[in-house]
Design a protein that fits this description.
This protein has 270 residues and is of the alpha/beta class. The protein has 12 helices and 7 strands. The longest helix is centred in the middle third of the chain and has 14 residues. The protein starts with 9 loop residues before the first helix and ends with a helix.
Length: 270
């Protein structure tokens, strides 16, 4: 067991995360197979809907029971303006623990940071970080350079505003992109700040395989950040040129989800 993995966390006992109603969307394979369930975790501002658009049914069509959770304050989950990063991690661990079999955790954007922390608390079958925003001051610097008008309000407690150019490629029709942008919400103020100041995640329980993927043309996560994230787990990132940050909603959404499922079939055999 890694010395960075803690079993007893006194803060969790002394100050438990308050319960909240959570939205979980599910797609079930038509024919039951012995494949692990996959739990998709959206990034800040996104809800489970972002995976229900394409990836949930596609994963189920390939035999994987697929679930997507809306973190508290997002999507159809209960409002939580004071939510913290710790509360988001709690949401993921609780939903994962409720599934009938050991799950694969897939986190997108800041949901990748949530999953990285959840892997230290839940013995996942595997982890996947999709265009992960793993936080720190380097993340702030990159965001300010690429989207100063949308990032500065978040520094002082306002909403983080992401643009069409940041999230999607030119291949996605403008009308579709507009619809997705209108559905975006916001994370809690404390959680946004903690994204910049958080501590490094502890080691994953049980040392599960972890895949990192993204796009070299992502205007939210630079290629260097993808490389650093992958190195943390002893690998190299899988790249999809020409795509935007929201790989699960972009025009070529099939390519990354098929790569993830192919990897799961290979690295997490029944």
């Amino acid at each position: 067991m890694s010395p960075r993995t803690r079993i007893v966390r006194s803060r969790d006992w002394a100050h438990p995360v308050p319960p909240v109603r959570r939205e979980v969307l599910t797609a079930t394979p038509e024919v039951a197979e012995e494949k692990p369930p996959v739990l998709f975790v959206p990034g800040f501002g996104h809800g489970a809907w972002a995976f229900a658009e394409h990836w949930l049914e596609h994963a189920a069509g390939r035999g994987f029971p697929a679930h997507a959770v809306s973190l508290r304050g997002h999507g159809g989950s209960a409002p939580a303006p004071g939510a913290t990063l710790r509360a988001y991690v709690h949401d993921v661990v609780q939903v994962a623990a409720s599934l009938p079999r050991q799950a694969v955790l897939v986190g997108h954007g800041a949901g990748g940071l949530v999953v990285a922390h959840a892997l230290a608390r839940y013995p996942a079958r595997a982890g996947v970080l999709v265009a992960p925003v793993l936080g720190g001051w380097g993340t702030l610097g990159a965001a300010l350079r690429r989207n100063p008008a949308g990032t500065l309000p978040a520094v002082v407690g306002g909403p983080l505003r992401l643009s069409r150019r940041q999230l999607f490629s030119r291949e996605l029709p403008n009308a579709t992109a507009k619809t997705y942008l209108e559905r975006l919400g916001r994370a809690g103020k404390r959680a946004q700040w903690q994204l910049l100041t958080h501590r490094e995640p502890e080691a994953a329980v049980g040392n599960p395989p972890v895949l990192v993927l993204g796009s070299p043309d992502d205007r939210v996560v630079p290629p260097s950040a993808l490389t650093r994230a992958a190195r943390r787990y002893g690998s190299a990132p899988l790249l999809f040129p020409g795509m935007g940050h929201d790989l699960m909603l972009d025009a070529r959404w099939r390519e990354p989800i098929d790569a993830i499922l192919d990897w799961l079939d290979k690295d997490t055999p029944v």
